[in-house]
């Protein structure tokens, strides 16, 4: 992740993303991770943990074949505006040494006069095991054979609820990748999701606000859509038709579309349909900057052929923002 328009105290799901990995991964990689959109683009070279390269690659191979220059970059200026994130970034090494190794050593020394035990077991061994659990469960949750693609099969993620016990709630990973802006992984009240509960607690304490959620209706619709798709061997694409019929929408010429966009409305043309995405700019899981690149332009290729394969849910969200149908075809070089 590392990607979104996140106000410092506004939470979307940061699991499996820049911040989550930054905290978990070895600190020596921090400098490169901060520049990369970590695991934003799934299952391609730009994804540092590209699941198509196999289980071991996703577990630790990506660290051994460490090539941050091939990773996609994402503008994370929104995160870097947060003074706490900036402070952590600047002082990560000292925080790790003092908090991760020094503190357990100190406690073991004061408590039972065993600083070596504290350093080895509660320091180094704990860090080693924590990283192994993070890497292993991350690899498992992108292995086809390990779980269910409950909501979307547009990427390699699967749901494996019981893994949530090990990784603080990230087990329902297919949900996370289908609804990446939702702060939850385990959407049911009984799903183990420590991260969700912590964010809710922070909301109660006033430390976070506006946790983003997808409606239960959309979640159930995605589940049923995927169920139907599974029955047809994954060959049929279902997009619901409960949005405005194209024939009922006004027709707009390209010049009028550009004029409207120049008034400050966030308009994008996709597949010959004009969409007003003004209210969606801050909610795009891939970040606001990607949307800015296609405003007042033909975004068809970016939406369908970009690095991220949009789910049926995403297509329905887009369909809900239709405002007009384009007359004719977009110019071949709209901005030329
Ligand atoms: Zn993932």
Automatic annotation (TrEMBL):
GO MF term set: heme binding; iron ion binding; stearoyl-CoA 9-desaturase activity
Keyword vocabulary terms for this entry: Fatty acid biosynthesis, Fatty acid metabolism, Heme, Iron, Lipid biosynthesis, Lipid metabolism, Membrane, Metal-binding, Oxidoreductase, Transmembrane, Transmembrane helix
One GO cellular component term noted in the UniProt record for this chain: endoplasmic reticulum membrane
GO biological process, one term: unsaturated fatty acid biosynthetic process
Pfam families for the chain: Cyt-b5, FA_desaturase
Keyword Glycoprotein included in the entry's annotation: no
InterPro entries listed in its UniProt record: Acyl-CoA_DS (IPR015876), Cyt_B5-like_heme/steroid-bd (IPR001199), Cyt_B5-like_heme/steroid_sf (IPR036400), Cyt_B5_heme-BS (IPR018506), FA_desaturase_dom (IPR005804), FADS-1_CS (IPR001522)
Domain Cytochrome b5 heme-binding: 249-327
Keyword GTP-binding: no
Transmembrane segments: 92-112, 118-141
Localization per record: Membrane
Topology relative to the membrane: Multi-pass membrane protein
First-listed, main subcellular location of the protein, grouped into a coarse class: membrane
Domain of life, source organism: Eukaryota
PANTHER family the record matches: ACYL-COA DESATURASE (PTHR11351), DESATURASE 1, ISOFORM A-RELATED (PTHR11351:SF31)
Family statement: Belongs to the cytochrome b5 family.
Protein name: Cytochrome b5 heme-binding domain-containing protein
């Amino acid at each position: 992740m590392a990607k979104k328009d996140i106000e410092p105290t506004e939470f979307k799901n940061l699991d499996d993303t820049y911040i989550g990995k930054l905290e978990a991964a070895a600190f020596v990689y921090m400098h490169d991770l901060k520049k990369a959109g970590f695991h934003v683009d799934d299952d391609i070279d730009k994804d540092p943990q590209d699941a198509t390269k196999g289980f071991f690659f996703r577990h630790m191979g990506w660290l051994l074949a460490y090539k941050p220059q091939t990773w996609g970059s994402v503008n994370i200026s929104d995160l870097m505006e947060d003074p706490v994130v900036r402070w952590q970034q600047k002082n990560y090494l000292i925080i790790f040494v003092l908090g991760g190794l020094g503190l357990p050593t100190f406690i073991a020394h004061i408590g039972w006069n065993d600083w070596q035990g504290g350093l080895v077991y509660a320091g180094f061994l704990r860090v080693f095991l924590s990283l192994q659990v993070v890497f292993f469960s991350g690899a498992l949750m992108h292995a086809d054979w390990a779980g269910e693609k409950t909501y979307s099969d547009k990427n390699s993620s699967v749901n494996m609820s019981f893994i949530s016990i090990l990784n603080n709630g990230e087990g329902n990973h297919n949900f996370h990748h289908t609804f990446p802006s939702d702060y939850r992984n385990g959407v049911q009240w009984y799903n183990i999701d420590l991260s969700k509960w912590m964010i809710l607690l922070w909301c109660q304490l006033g430390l976070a606000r506006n946790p983003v959620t997808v409606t239960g209706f959309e979640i159930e619709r995605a589940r049923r859509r995927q169920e139907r798709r599974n029955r047809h061997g994954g060959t049929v694409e279902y997009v619901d038709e409960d949005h405005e019929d194209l024939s009922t929408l006004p027709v707009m010429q390209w010049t009028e579309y550009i004029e409207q966009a120049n008034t400050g409305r966030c308009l994008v043309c996709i597949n010959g349909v004009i969409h007003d995405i003004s209210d969606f700019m801050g909610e795009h899981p891939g970040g606001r900057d990607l949307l800015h690149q296609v405003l007042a332009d033909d975004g068809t290729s970016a939406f369908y052929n970009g690095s991220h394969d949009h789910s049926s849910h995403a297509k329905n969200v887009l369909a809900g923002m239709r405002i007009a149908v384009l007359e004719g075809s977009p110019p071949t070089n709209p901005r030329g």
